[in-house]
User: What shape does this take?
Amino acid sequence: MDGCPRVSGSGQANCGTGRIFPMTSLQLSPDAVTVLGLAGTALPFAQSVDDEVERWLRPLRLYGQAGSALQSLGVSEGRLDASQQNHPERSEDSPSETLHLIATAASRIAAERGGATVGTSDILLAVMGHYGDAFDRALRCRSSDSDELMMVLGERAAA
Assistant: This one.
């Protein structure tokens, strides 16, 4: 993959080579397709792991259950300024590998909850798991944390 996947609702990516790469065994919700597509387009331009997290948070904040949860915590759409990103390490994975890892993890999360489709909350949980401390730093810079986000996601799933 060349870092610019085009994601379909069937959970497959096409990089313009004519080859289809399965990313998930479950169907993707329309919002999940949008989030994966936007993040997949933005990831190649990330300069650090923290920057990758930002490139996931922006579309996640705008779509589906993940968007509702992040907005309720006051997570803004705007990027953090460079002074708030003190961890310049780069990702060990290529953007396309990261996209594949997160889509695969989101599919597993959706299957474990018995979902028929992969939603934005599944992607959010996969991003949280993939980035760990970097994701926590991004939330703390916005006066929130992973525990609070998990509580909100749980409340919304129960409703």
Observations:
- The domain at 6-77+90-158 is CATH 1.10.1780.10 (Double Clp-N motif).
- Residues 51 and 85 are 8 Å apart (CA to CA).
